[in-house]
Design goal:
This protein is α+β, with helices and mostly antiparallel strands. The chain has one domain: Glutaredoxin. About 50% of the residues lie in helices and about 10% in strands. The strands form 2 sheets. Strands 2-4-3-6-7 form a 5-stranded mixed β-sheet, sandwiched between helices. The chain has a two-stranded antiparallel ribbon with strand order 1-5. Helix 1 packs across helix 6, helix 6 packs antiparallel against helix 7 and helix 6 packs parallel to helix 9. The longest helix has 25 residues. The termini are far apart. The relative contact order is 0.18.
């Protein structure tokens, strides 16, 4: 008979990851065209079509079509949620990049390993870009890893994210397996008691679910998806694409600043 923590793991993972790629779906997204678009995006792990909300008391058959914003404003994209925004870089940086990531997504791992170190060195650490990471779990094991990630102290969040991505092959599974995830979380000082307690934090789990639902409303259809200064990019991107999008914005800011200075 499964122990209390095993049952708890199944419940919380289903809450965050249910109907998102690993198992039967219970409903439809904001239309089948959204799901089709996701499946056609190269370099993206698609979010499965699912209007089902595991925290709703409504049966899945009664859930209506999700509203998806066509062109959300920067203010709408940056609207604060219940959980603290996990960000790196200056709050007043001229460009903001928001990434939606699933912990089990191989393309997110690719971005973290190949592109993020250069992005951080050339743009985040130099004050040019503010980088925001938002959770968008796809699958039950991803949901459990996301909970562990949010349980880490704020100053260890990005260190644990990097470790989970680097060691992804060691813990990714079609089944909910807490132990391999804990082994990674322990590397940033998390105790088993903290890990098990977090998995039962219903308030945080519901808040994480709303982060994902908000992402869907903004048009996110899989991972990684990015907002680069308000522009939605539905695929993994490399440093070349980042430079092509960010450098003209930075150049425009410099030109505008020079023009203002000369007018004085």
């Amino acid at each position: 008979m499964p122990g209390r923590h095993t049952v708890s793991a199944l419940i919380v993972a289903a809450a965050l990851g249910g109907c998102t790629g690993e198992g039967p779906t219970l409903g439809s997204l904001a239309g089948s065209e959204v799901a089709t678009a996701a499946l056609q995006q190269p370099g993206t792990t698609p979010d499965a079509p699912a209007a089902y909300n595991p925290f709703s008391e409504q049966p899945a058959s009664t859930v209506g079509r999700r509203e998806v914003m066509e062109s959300p404003s920067v203010a709408e994209i940056m609207q604060a949620g219940e959980l603290p925004e996990m960000a790196l870089g200056r709050a007043d940086a001229p460009v903001t990049i928001v990434q939606y990531a699933s912990m089990t997504c191989p393309y997110c791992r690719q971005f973290q390993r190949e592109t993020f170190p250069v992005l951080k060195r050339e743009y985040i650490d130099t004050g040019k870009v503010r980088y925001v990471l938002r959770e968008f779990p796809i699958g039950h094991q991803s949901g459990l890893a996301t909970i562990a990630l949010r349980c880490a102290p704020a100053d260890k969040y990005f260190a644990l994210y990097d470790k989970l991505m680097a060691q992804q092959p060691s813990w990714v599974s079609q089944e909910v397996r807490p132990d391999p995830i804990f082994k990674v979380a322990a590397q940033v000082g998390m105790t088993r008691a903290q890990f098990d307690s977090c998995r039962e934090n219903r308030g945080m789990i519901q808040a994480l679910n709303r982060v994902k639902e908000r992402g869907r409303t903004l048009g996110v259809i899989g991972t990684p998806n990015f907002f680069v200064q308000g522009k939605l990019v539905k695929s993994v991107i490399g440093i070349k694409e980042i430079r092509e999008m960010v450098d003209p914005i930075l150049a425009g800011r410099v030109a505008a600043s020079d023009g203002t200075a000369k007018a004085r």
